[in-house]
Design a protein that fits this description.
Structural class: mainly alpha
Helix content: 55-70%
Strand content: 5-15%
Shape: elongated
Radius of gyration: 25 Å
Order of helices and strands: HHHHEEH
Distance between the termini: 71 Å
Number of strands: 2
Length: 132
């Protein structure tokens, strides 16, 4: 019985787009907004959530694979740009007790240096300058 259901579901999903990064991000956003909705009781948000979940499942069951792939690629490009901006900030916060970040006075590259315990100052110069 269970095997028949699996086969039928696999046959139904053939040629359909399926789950991707945008689907996962959409489901997470849906649950966050629905949690906000339970506390805030905004009537317009409830209707918006219903439309949003219908759109998410429409994308999953869609047979327009090239269109869905292009949508997902746009989101992946946007998130990778955002991650490139956020990651250095997160690393600075994470290593605040063990390292200091200084810029090279000549080329402007940011260097991660271990904390010096004595009162000496770092002379900061990147490897790019040393090799040139």
């Amino acid at each position: 019985m269970l095997n028949k259901i699996k086969v039928k579901l696999a046959q139904f999903m053939q040629g359909r787009y399926g789950i991707d990064y945008l689907y996962v991000a959409g489901i997470i956003l849906y649950f966050v907004l629905s949690l906000i909705q339970t506390f805030a009781q905004i009537p317009f948000l409830n209707m918006l959530l219903t439309i949003f979940i219908i759109w998410i499942f429409y994308r999953v069951f869609s047979k327009k694979i090239s269109t869905r792939r292009a949508e997902n690629q746009k989101i992946m490009t946007w998130t990778s740009k955002l991650q490139r901006k956020v990651k250095p900030v997160w690393q600075r916060i994470h290593h605040v007790r063990t390292h200091r970040y200084r810029k090279c006075s000549e080329c402007g590259v940011t260097l991660r240096l271990p904390i010096k315990r004595e009162e000496a100052k770092w002379f900061v110069r990147s490897a790019r300058i040393a090799l040139a």
